[in-house]
Amino acid sequence: MSGMMGAGLAHAFAVTVAEAQVSAEILTGPRNPLAAPWAAWKAAFLDDNGRVIDQLQQGASHSESQGYGLLLAALFADAPVFDSIYRWTEANLAVRSDALLAWRWLPDGTGRVPDSNNASDGDLFYAWALVIRGQRDAMPELLDRASAIAQALVAKCIVPAPDGSGRLLFAPAARGFDRDGSRIINPSYYMPRAMREVARATGASNLAVCASDGETIMAELASLGLMPDWIQIGENGISPVKDMSDRNGYEAVRVALFLSWSGNAAHPAVERQARAYSLAKDSAAVPPGLYPVVMDRFTGRVLESSDSVGYGAVAAMVGCASRSEIGSAIPFFQTSGQPYYPATLHLMTLIAQVLSLPECVPI
Q1: Mean of the pLDDT values across residues 158-185?
Q2: Which CA distances in Å does 124 have to 100, 190, 199, 258?
């Protein structure tokens, strides 16, 4: 009996992997439905040297933006763009003594990397992109680089929770996020699918453990309200961080997107976020043409809205992901009037829909 069950599980896993490969191939073939959005994103935010530019942040580039860009290039099998982003990032942000990236590069002045601290989400997405390209194109040097990053993340950014739970936390950086015996975390830095795929490819198994622990923590947070931008965990449990946002804002908007993309659309944080978006819409709390971005995490009251359509794309997909219906109101991709960050979330939303939520096809 156990042998039969083992064979059945192996077959089910093989089918799942095959389906994932077929799904991913949609984005790399001649009929890629997102070819035009990808071309528009490159034209708007990527320079000829492979630097992803965030104009609203002093024209800076971040390990986050470079990691996001490298992931997009990997998913779309755009080898020339992948190579240019990789070369620029290695030359300008890989300046630490370990395998992690410095978190920010500024275009002006002599101190273009004023702070060598890393950002763990940028490192994670960068490693994930290296895994995708390295495995697909049989490039062991990329897998070696991903493995070095993964091992450094485990060594420097995965830490035990101080509450005695035995859980592992994904620290936002190698330093600077310990406070009075508490550990500060950003729930949007957790991308479970990336953490598990990088762990599987590199052997850095604590990344996968940390992903599961993070999903548990987010479920506990969802039992109280919406996801916060920042939160701390101490001996006595979870509490806000002084002088840091615990609103459901520009950081936390990524949580439900990343959970849904990871195949966990049934997570309580997704359902809670979808309900808040729906209530905001039904109550006319946001004027036409604007989208809720910052909300009180306990009441759902809209505190700030934006005309960047990427935030509306996330809300539409999250709403669909929490329902058992076909079709979503994800708007057409555009870069006109939309800065790097919401535009990138918009393109990621479309990718998540294709790869993980086929029922949420835009209508």
Answers
A1: 97
A2: 9, 9, 10, 13
